[in-house]
Write a structure and sequence with these properties.
This protein has 729 residues and is an alpha+beta fold. The chain is built from twelve helices and 38 strands. The strands form seven sheets. Strands 6, 7, 8, 9, 11, 12, 14, 15, 19 and 20 form a ten-stranded antiparallel β-sheet that branches. Strands 29-28-27-26-23-22-21-30 form an eight-stranded parallel β-sheet. Strands 5, 10, 13, 16, 17 and 18 form a six-stranded antiparallel β-sheet that branches. Helix 6 runs parallel beside helix 7 and helix 9 runs parallel beside helix 10. Bound molecules: alpha-D-galactopyranose. Alpha-D-galactopyranose binds next to loops.
């Protein structure tokens, strides 16, 4: 198995199928990072260089030796307040107000299986398929202990990280920072990729060389956010989809986070990922422990494709859970863009009838079915049916939908409350707001204090009552604003800084309760589209509505960025009408369909209002999606072009053995007298392939190096579908 320990040398090596990670405790017990990269078959300590760098401090025991500085050495979990002036992984304030921590090696332990983290989502694995390495560190002059946990999924080239901080002293300490991952890379030039954006334009990859000092991507919005995703890649400047070296990490957390990358005075790189220190503090009483959320790392010497494949597999197989984790998802029709708030039972049933006739599996009733909710200014929190719109309640509507042969799904926004609601009038103190200050509104709404048990109980009871009142197969779990004005009536002044993290613990507890009690109900995550698209939510929801932007051209770019970290099965995607409601742009119906197939596949329009030609296409699209769904969701995904530059968006799904390949996408603009485009696919070079609709037989090598000639295109956003089958299988 992957973890090897040399007890005498206090040397630790973690090997996975293609990678190796090493560190050791030096003679003073300082944990020095030695290596993360390809397998090397030897101890990499020889790479430690000991320059005498002015103004770089030494721990006391080094005596006359000015070369062994914690300010210049690669470290495994750097401490704040002592002589490493780079980004710390941990910072505490002791009872006497001092802020130094000097963690030294105390012991280790290797366990079979993957550790869990109390109250937090984390990678899970069968006992035989994972191992855990625990390293215990202790402060030199306080009884603060830190246990670093490494989870090893050898076959998947995945190493997970989490830390437990224990206060074994008699007085409280205050945690100021507690990172989940710190990674020092002492050699090499690295470029940083992060995924930035905004509402309806999420996860745009941005790649830049590192500059000296600290660069950061983070969220302080109480949600992982549309604006920065909790993930990063560090890659060699020559890194491409298929070649070059890259490190990647994502955070299994849905709240505020912080990723800092520092290029230091010696051109060494340090990456630190964890809770956002600007919104974090934790009072750790005597005898208490704090567990950081999990960070998941991989390394690829084969470019971004390999990195993405490792992440896709671990998220799909070891983070997502429940009945729908690997199962085919129902093709759904969501009424939001079809009706917005303007619906009644009759309208919904008509939409359902049209959808059923064209082969849709599930009708999802979006916002507006509850309380006094005719616009987004009121009603949130009142999770009981609006009988004016739906006379007879949900029961009779659901039965009618089921009689059409479809399942039924329902929208909730549990964490939010409108001031104009019965809930708010009864419990104004349940909303997060600071006494004697006017609260900030977002989409006219406030946020419930999820750290409170009474709030969670209310939400559990009201959601459970609805789920029990009718045969509901699906929940869309929305959250439509960022969180600020942090204050909880339940916490003392010195504990208020804990609220952002307590909020997330509360949310996860509620999701855990609901998924445990209603295992057959699938939850789709959402936050104004993809504002909480992260691995923490994917532990509870196997798919997340990827973006409120359903324009095929824009979606292709959003899904491109999303695919670096997250699997295709996690992407909620719907065909909508044109002109598109977010952009006013027009794309062909088939282009919208192939773009939507890169996800869960569904529709968000009134199918009855389509042209006859489009109506005829719908059953065929659904049939085609279902035929390809196993390949799309279980296969390997390759990005064949960068749609944020250039004229094409093309991507590929390949079966594990490369015997079946599907290429989808679009050519944005057709030029007059245009030469056909040759697209280089990823195939098995020595195999022979047949392209559906083409009489020739081609070697993989030809189509990989010479490319596949795309069909002649016409018009804007011309759709592409190419299906290849390996011959002689
Ligand atoms: C958010 C979601 C949309 C829709 C609306 C309803 O914006 O992303 O899909 O559910 O809320 O208010």
């Amino acid at each position: 198995m992957g973890i090897k320990v040399n007890e005498k040398e206090r040397f630790f090596s973690i090997t996975t199928r293609n990678t190796e990670y090493q560190f050791k405790a030096d003679k003073f017990g300082v944990l020095k990072h030695l290596w993360y990269g390809e397998k090397t078959d030897r101890d990499m300590e020889y790479l430690l260089d000991y320059p005498d760098v002015g103004f770089s401090g030494q721990i006391y025991e080094t005596g006359d030796d000015r070369t062994d500085s914690i300010d210049t050495m690669p470290l495994e979990y750097p401490c704040g307040g002592i002589g490493d002036f780079r980004i710390p992984a941990i910072k505490v304030t002791h009872a006497d107000g001092s802020t130094a921590l000097d963690l030294r090696y105390k012991g280790y332990c290797v366990k079979n299986g993957k550790y869990n983290i109390p109250g937090l989502p984390a990678v899970y694995a069968e006992e035989a398929k994972a191992q855990t390495l625990e390293i215990t560190l202790c402060d030199t002059s306080s009884d603060t202990e830190v246990i670093l946990r490494y989870g090893v999924l050898e076959e998947l080239d995945i190493i997970t990280r989490s830390a437990e901080i224990r206060n074994n002293s008699n007085s409280p300490i205050f945690l100021k920072e507690a990172a989940s991952l710190s990674l020092d890379i002492p050699f090499g030039d690295w470029e940083w990729i992060h995924f930035q954006g905004r509402h309806t334009k999420e996860r745009v990859p941005e790649r830049a060389p590192l500059i000296h000092g600290i660069q950061e991507s983070s969220s302080s919005r109480g949600m992982s956010s549309h604006h920065q995703n909790p993930s990063f890649i560090l890659c060699s400047p020559d890194c491409t989809e298929q070649t070059g070296k890259c490190y990647g990490a994502f955070f299994v957390y849905s709240g505020s986070f912080q990723i800092q990358i520092e290029l230091d005075q010696l051109n060494q790189t340090r990456a630190v990922m964890g809770l956002n220190s600007k919104l974090f503090g934790w009072k750790l009483n005597s005898g208490e422990s704090f567990h950081t959320p999990e960070a998941v790392m991989t390394y690829s010497a084969g470019g971004f494709s390999k990195l993405s494949h490792n992440f896709h597999k671990v998220i799909r197989e070891n983070i997502c859970r429940g009945k729908y984790q690997l199962a085919e998802r129902p093709v759904l029709l969501n009424n939001w863009e079809a009706t917005y708030f303007g619906f009644d039972a009759e309208k919904i049933i008509k939409i359902a009838e049209d959808a059923a006739a064209l082969g849709v599996d599930m009708l999802v009733l979006d916002d507006g079915w509850f309380g006094k909710r005719d616009s987004d200014t009121s009603g949130l929190g009142d999770w009981f049916v609006n009988e004016k719109k739906l006379p007879g309640g949900l029961g009779s509507l659901v039965e009618k939908v089921k009689a059409l042969g479809m399942k039924f799904g329902l929208w909730f926004e549990p964490e939010m409350v409108s001031e104009d609601s019965e809930l708010y009038r009864a419990h104004p103190d349940w909303a997060i707001k600071i006494p004697n200050r006017k609260p900030t509104r977002g989409r006219y709404q406030l946020v419930l204090d999820m750290s409170r048990k009474d709030v969670r109980d209310y939400l559990y009871d009201s959601i459970a009552a609805i789920l029990k009142s009718a045969d509901i197969s699906y929940i869309k779990w929305d959250a439509n604003r960022s969180i600020c004005d942090w204050y909880s009536g339940e916490l003392s002044a010195e504990n208020q800084c804990e609220l952002p993290h307590r909020y997330m613990l509360g949310l996860y507890e509620l999701l855990e309760r609901l998924t445990a009690y209603f295992p057959d109900v699938m939850i789709e995550g959402c936050s104004g589209g993809g504002g909480r698209f992260d691995a923490g939510m994917l532990y509870y929801c196997p798919q997340i509505w990827c973006s409120d932007d359903t324009d095929a051209f824009e979606r292709a770019k959003i899904q491109y960025g999303t695919s670096f970290i997250y699997p295709i099965s996690a992407v909620g995607s719907h065909v909508s009408v044109v002109p598109n409601h977010q952009t006013g742009c027009i794309t062909p119906f088939e282009t919208r369909a192939v773009t939507t197939m890169a996800g869960s596949f569904g529709y968000e329009l009134d199918l009855g209002a389509l042209s006859d030609e489009e109506k005829n296409a719908v059953p065929e699209q659904i049939k085609r999606f279902k035929k390809y769904a196993p390949l799309i969701h279980n296969g390997k995904y390759y990005r064949l072009s960068d749609p944020t530059t250039g004229n094409i968006a093309l991507w590929e799904y390949a079966s594990e053995d490369m015997s079946e390949v599907l290429i989808h996408g679009m050519v944005f603009r057709t030029e007059p007298n245009m030469k056909r485009i040759a697209i280089k696919a990823v195939l098995s070079p020595d195999s022979q392939y047949k392209i559906e609709g083409d009489l020739g037989i081609y070697t993989g090598a030809a189509l990989m190096n010479g490319g596949i000639l795309l069909p002649k295109t016409w018009g804007d956003y011309c759709p592409i579908e190419i299906h290849l089958i390996k011959q002689g299988v």
